[in-house]
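If you are new to this repository, start here. Below is one unmodified record pulled from the training split, so you can see the exact layout before writing a loader.
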Amino acid sequence: MFLLNPGPVTLSPRVRESLLGPDLCHREPEFFDLQDAARAGLLSVYDLDPAEWAAVLLTGSGTAAVESMVASVVPADGRLLVLENGVYGERMTAIAECHGIAHETLAGDWLDAPDLDALDARLASSPGFTHVAVVHHETTTGRLIDLAEVGAVCREHGVRLLVDGVSSFGGEEIDFALPIDAVAGTANKCLHGVPGIAFAVVRRAALASAAQRAYYLDLTRLATLQDHRNTPFTPAVQSLYALVEALDELRSEGGWRTRHDRYARYAGAVGKTLRAADVAPLLPDGGSSVVLRSYRLPNTVSYVDLHDRLKDRGFVIYAGQGKLANSIFRISTMGDLSDVNIDRLVDALTETFS
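And here is the target side for that same chain:
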């Protein structure tokens, strides 16, 4: 069965086999070697300087990393503006509310990119903001946010960026020269690891002013202990084996750019097939990530029927969320997929929509 949902992904044989690594006590040097390898590997994805950046590991899903980032990096006296263009932007607002962080939202239609003029106006009229939070790849629709444009507005107003990179880290470009304080990610999406390990890549200077609003998700404590080859809690050891192997596999394939190109090629093949079957993309050309794209359900086909027909052919797709639940379907090209798999998928889609 091939998973075409936005994580978890279909594993390569080498990553799956890495789960059979020896049992480790998380207080032994062998575990800390593994932890160090994962942290270094995460920084190497975008060639980041470990003196300036820290990759901080958490046991949990991508949302754990996002919550740790928001709850920790916004200072105690900070103020957050959340850009909402889908479910995951709304989730960051909910996180800010849970932790009592002073915040506002700038909500846009789910089918639109963030309004940069509105962002500029809001930051100009409310100079107290310290951070803007944005979802880089909003998988609600497949929208890829232009981080450079958002970052330019933030830089003009002296505001820092918090990036939900859960569905983009390792598959899309992230320019860490932007005024980014932290990017949250997870092992089981573009990195092709397994669920259980999430992470935040955080600017070390931002940790100096971080707040302590959480216990388990306190990013500063996690970073400090991991820097000293320690850990405060029992981590998901086997998931960490898989992450280290997946990072090695990514490097051996040529890095994130090579993976991005493969995703783009596969997403293009799927899109071309669906257009030929009169199935329209949800977003216009250039608006979507290569990682996942959304398509409008024809009136003649229900999602359940489409899902079940494709599953019978060996492919698992994803439904829409929220107000889009009954009108779209989503297909991701992450994971250990090959040209042969995509050819089979194209045949299955053609047959289904005929």
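Two things worth knowing about this chain: The longest helix spans residues 256-276. The chain has a mean pLDDT of 97.
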